[in-house]
Amino acid sequence: MITSVTVDDxxxxxxxxxxxxxxxxxxxxxxxxxxxxxxxGMHPVLIDRSADSxxxxxxxxxxxxxxxxPMVDPIIDELDxxxxxxxxxxxxxxxxxxxxxxxxxxQDRLGDLLADYGDYRGISRAALLDVLTASDCSIAFGTTxxxxxxxxxxxTLAQGGHGGxxxxxxxxxxxxxxxxxxxxxxxxxxxxxxxxPGKNAKPAATGADVPLSVSAVDTTWGGWVCWAEADDDxxxxxEILADGFFLGxxxxxxxxxxxxxxxxxxxxxxxxxxxxxxxxRLTVLTPRIDACLTAVxxxxxxxxxxxxxxxxxxxxxxxxxxxxxAAAGFLPTAGIGxxxxxxxxxxxxxxxxxxxxxxxxxSSAGSxxxxxxxxxxxxxxxxxxxxxxxxxxxxxxxxxLMFGRSRLFAFxxxxxxxxxxxxxALKPILQLLESPPERM
Length: 440
Hints:
The protein is an alpha+beta fold. It has a domain at 2-92 and 117-206 and 309-400 and 416-434: FAD/NAD(P)-binding domain (3-Layer(bba) Sandwich). The protein has helices at residues 7-11, 28-39, 53-58, 73-78, 82-87, 110-114, 125-132, 271-281, 287-298, 337-353, 371-402, 407-419, 422-425, 427-434, and strands at residues 2-4, 21-24, 45-47, 65-68, 90-91, 94-98, 104-109, 121-124, 137-139, 143-148, 154-159, 165-170, 173-176, 201-203, 214-228, 236-241, 246-252, 255-263, 303-308, 310-312, 316-317, 320-322, 328-329. Strands 6, 7, 14, 15, 16, 17, 18, 19, 20 and 23 form a ten-stranded mixed β-sheet that branches. The two termini are 26 Å apart. Residues 189-210 and 363-369 have low confidence and may be disordered.
């Protein structure tokens, strides 16, 4: 259960024998890390800029539907919430690929493909946060970081939203987990140049004093997101890949998450008119496709999700570390972002737990003991960043295949989908599942 607890009250529970850890952002990555550490007897301070828990969980603009691959299973088991997880989600068994006309190109048994590794399940973001916070979860709401020292030891927090009173605190570790457009990330000092790793990449920030080199890929596509009612086949994911539009239909408990994608230049048309245009172009209209297009047409101000990603080429800076979307914000093309965020939280929890038997170093930054949190964060980055970037690369590769505008490209892609197996398309992800990170 989420409870509103101030920073000062959370700090009262921290003993001198454990590190003082600040987690910025109560999203999937931040909550997962906080709950893992609390389950291991530690007391991290968790803050979020949302005014309250209802807004944090109820605002689905931050993510509607999630497909969670088996890398989350060890996290679910450690948090002892498997029963709630299964009850709040649906098992995904089949992937159905449709041609640009709506005709079924192929069906693949995703459940069979992933069965050796664990569960593959569809869940809403709100439901997942409810599952992760089934046990007590203290959060200081309306709290943001306004200043961060170079090594991350001293943090100034604004409590009570904008205009709130600032308070300075010392921490051994600061975990920045406040999303792809992280406000806190930009506060880390240093002078590392921005990079541009590809012709479609754009800097995610500007300025000469940005320490953690961040790049972004802009697909020049986006899409409207809404909910449709559940149907009789909640174990199947459907996707239509066409010339100039994309329709994805993703089951969760008691509903179907709908994503209707288009080039950015088509956004001004609006969801109702664009959905009607897509309907007119399809020669095969299944009941699910019809219902999902109707949901877009009838949705009140559906959120338009720009398809951009973000990658920080360095996660650690002193005692500050990036986690989840703040480190690597994924395109939704491989359905792996939330799973990698939870896996990364598990790896980081292991490294931080090893510090729990040592005295806090927050007031002894000049000692050799103070270097231990830095070493722990560097080990975490060395272990996890290659895995995250492999999945990130896979999402980018799939985006190039999924988002096309020409009829010729759509035709060629339809032919390719007949021969390319789902195993080949997800090979990088399967390799990650075959060699999970060592648990600590």
